[in-house]
Amino acid sequence: MAEIHGSIWAVRCTGCGAEREERDDFAELPPRCAACGGLLRPGVVWFGETLPPGPSGAAMEVLSRCEVLIVAGTSAVVSPASGYAAVAKRRGARVIEVNPDETPVSGICDAAFRGTSEEVLPALLG
Ligand SMILES: [Zn+2]
After folding, report:
1. Ligand 1 mean position to 56 CA, how many Å?
2. Domains in the chain with CATH codes
3. Which residues are catalytic?
4. Tens digits of per-residue pLDDT, 68-122?
5. Could you tell me the distance, in angstroms and rounded to a whole number, from the CA of residue 41 to the centre of ligand 1?
């Protein structure tokens, strides 16, 4: 799995940059870093921030060797994820779209299931 936009289950210190998984409620608000006292923020990418290179590289590596790519629940308009279907297709993968509506990648998909991820994925993968 490559979490290109980070994880909602991670927190990152705005002071020292330390990051860790956090699944419990915070003892105090606002939450602060135990090491430096800096404010903690969610470990996700916000608009205008750069994607972390590690997960993005991992995603490209998976795209280079996958046989089937399921594009589910995305409008396919925000780069770089919007380009992942084309990358996989160029490298020989079958691309399947799961979305109630057509998207900019619909034209290159080998198959499309028009419905929500909640409706389609259990039937497709079950
Ligand atoms: Zn810190």
Report:
1. 25
2. 6-44 (3.30.1600.10), 66-125 (3.40.50.1220)
3. 5
4. 999 998 888 888 888 999 999 999 999 999 999 999 999 999 999 999 999 999 9
5. 11
